[in-house]
Amino acid sequence: MVADKQRLEAFVCHAVRADLYPTDGLSMQQLVTDDDDALFGRVLANEHHVLRELLPDTTNQKYGLRKRRHNYTPNIK
Fold first, then answer.
1. Rounded to the nearest 5°, which phi and psi values hold at 73?
2. pTM of the model as a whole
3. N or C, which end of the chain has less CB nearby within 10 Å?
4. Number of domains in the chain
């Protein structure tokens, strides 16, 4: 996993040196995070999405501490 991250960061560095990617562009970590958030949003918005069945059961919070991004229970392994 760490080696994969390093290879992707190196790929971005090579693309910057070859003028294929802007020097002030997003880092690989930010690109992956943005895409991950977008995919999660699409799965939540579409009840017929293929990945929807992989989401854990929803939970009702009795506390009003802060707004959560979703109401699914975390998988604790």
1. -80, 140
2. 0.62
3. C
4. 1
